[in-house]
Specification:
The protein has helices spanning 2-19, 37-48; strands at 52-56, 60-65, 68-76, 82-87, 90-96, 101-108, 113-119, 123-128. It is α+β, with helices and mostly antiparallel strands.
Length: 129
């Protein structure tokens, strides 16, 4: 039975879990006591996914395909600058970008699309998986 359980977990982690990325949402990638095997497998896949980033230096809207919004880095502050990040059409984070900072988030996205709407002249980097 243990071998079957390990085999099932391996299949879920490599095949099923990525397909259901939009169906699961949780605040941490650390397995919790109440997590099902599917949730644990999905968290394992996300934790091992390579981190990607995009640098934004202009006012406007930028969208990228992503399963998880990782962090926001303000490289160079701008005057009266801000960013609003959305998961599809739902706002998930916002920040004024008038001072250099680094903000960790780790938010699992349900839509598969991370959109940043920026104003002002700040130079920001968004990391995602």
């Amino acid at each position: 039975m243990k071998l079957f359980s390990l085999f099932t977990a391996a299949i879920l982690a490599t095949v099923v879990a990525p397909a259901f990325a939009g169906d699961l949402a949780y605040p941490t990638l650390v397995p919790q006591t109440a997590d099902t095997e599917l949730v644990i497998a999905h968290k394992s896949v996300l934790a091992q996914a390579p981190r990607r980033s995009i640098n934004i230096t202009t006012t406007g809207t930028t969208s990228v395909p992503a399963a998880m919004f990782d962090r926001l880095i303000v490289n160079t502050a701008g005057t009266a600058s801000s960013v609003v990040l959305t998961d599809g059409t739902t706002a998930i984070a916002s920040a004024t970008t008038t001072a250099q900072t680094w903000l960790p988030f780790g938010i699992v996205l349900s839509s598969g699309t991370l959109t940043a709407v920026t104003t002002g002249t700040a130079n920001i980097t968004i990391t995602f998986r």
